[in-house]
Amino acid sequence: MHSPGFLQGPEGTIMVKLFAGTDIHVQLAPDTARHLVRLLERFNWTKSDPQLFDSRWRRFWRGIHPIERRIVSLYVQSSNGEHFRTTTVWLGNLPQALHSSETRRRPPRATDGVLNEFANVEQILVRACVDADKNDDVHDEDDLEPSGIVTSPPNFPTSRERVGQARLRQDRYRDNVLALWNNACAVTGCSLAPVVVASHAKPWALSNDGERLDPHNGLPLVGSLDRLFDAGLVGFNPVTGSMHVASIVGAHDRVLLGLPAPLRRRPCAKQAVFLRYHLDYVFQGEWESDEASGSGQR
Fold this sequence. Notes:
Blueprint: E1 6-8, E2 14-16, E3 26-28, H1 30-47, H2 53-62, H3 66-80, H4 112-128, H5 160-180, E4 196-200, H6 209-213, E5 218-222, H7 223-230, E6 234-236, E7 243-245, H8 251-257, H9 269-281
Antiparallel strand pairs: 1-2, 2-3, 4-5, 6-7
Helix pairs in contact: 1-2, 1-3, 3-4
């Protein structure tokens, strides 16, 4: 499949064809397009040496914002027809302003303007309901993480009807997640339904269909904890349930938010797999296993 490309747009903008098989182009500011190219170059670099892939991937994926991860997943999938772990993306014929040779260095932090543009691109995808060739249930052994969770990007809906059905299934998913935790927040014990959210440990955008609806991939959390968990500012040890808090959350905010606070019970084996993925690839900080010591707050 020919890779979606980057073209010079009007008034210095960049036109990016993100969606293979369609005529949909997204107009991005040069800074945003340049940032996307650097992310994709970094993605390619992680794949350049199979022996170093796991360590490079972990550093790359944990070092970028959740919306950046979703956009990289979107581009790689569109570029390669669902192939994510087993291929790189083609970045030839870039406009001169987008060329970069900094593949060994972590991309610079995305500005708020870049993150906002990435969020708009994601919304365009949802509205467009892109018809990407899919193979929903078949994954090669090489596509498996050591944790046993497939790291393939999202299987995008092929029609508005499919999107609607997926949203309806979310209600059932929430009910199933709550049922595993006695219909209350997994940390606070709050049972006030309107403020408890079913949070994904492995993000929706990076999960396959089965993982998206697996209640063991979820935690019922009150609104503030849901946002912290989704942003990778807190995570939970997969063995003990103790909470890890990212260093960027200051002491004053920790007091205001009541952090750290553990899960009300230890995770089961299935939940532990997803919580470990969250710590490895979503949590914005360092952590070490406390399987032996029983502690691990860092």
